[in-house]
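Hi F.,

I've been meaning to write this up properly since the lab meeting, where we talked about keeping a consistent format for the predictions we share between groups. The idea is simple: the sequence comes first, exactly as it goes in, then the structure tokens exactly as they come out, then a line or two of notes. No screenshots and no reformatting. I'm using this chain as the first example so we have something concrete to point to.
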Amino acid sequence: MGDLAINGRTWNEAEQDLVVGDYFVMLDKAMTGRPYDPDNHQRALRFVTNRSGGAITFLQGEISAILSLIGLPTLKDHPPRRDFGDSLVDAVDRHLSMRPAVLKDLAQPPALLGRTAAPVLAEGAPPRPAPTPPGDRAQRLIARFDPAERDLEARMLTRIGVAAALAYEQTRLAERGRPDLAAEIRLALPPVDEGCDLLSFSRTGAPRRIAVKTTTGGPATPFRLTPAEEALSRDQPGAFVVYRIYDVAREARVFRVRGAGEAAEG
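Output, unedited:
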């Protein structure tokens, strides 16, 4: 871990709990638009833990990596560091298990309900594959909090994501000189249009069947297709596209993938 590399001292459970708790305090403020001073937070942590600023920063980056695995937002100024240990995974687990409202508010921020318009999506890039898979303890944490299932059941995220994707598709086609096709985009109407959320077109006029997957987490957050989406991806592989919307409560970015995971063309 970062602290061990710096001064030979490992973190004990109480110290990790302090840093994890402080991380979530800052994250809550960041997600709700309230100001906070990271330097003040670090000074306080240095005082109560007697750790260096570098050691604390390392640990905060490792917390970001763990939260990204379970599909939660992270602090932008602490990019993920994937060399975390099992004891830190346990500290994150303890915090979220004892405070279920924290998990709910990060996965479905109340501020999203107050939006009067859908987020404007910016182009994002698919995540790079992790150099090494998560360890067994991290895998159990992912299974415990199951971000794919959580987002799949979050109807608020679904509504917001579909509205944002609809506006994005209309703009995309209009900017490509096809306002006629942009005007023809519509919401899918089950059971007639099973397996997708939007009926759209490529710029050449070919049909495009879009399944929208939305998360407040980062681009690497796993998502899951429904049985109807799986069937449509098999029956119409050339038309089926997933729009992966991530960080929807803040920057709201999107990338496109085919049902089999291949990057999709615009």
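Notes:
DSSP finds twelve helices and six strands in the chain.
The first strand starts at residue 122 and ends at 123.

If this format works for you, I'll send the rest the same way.

G.
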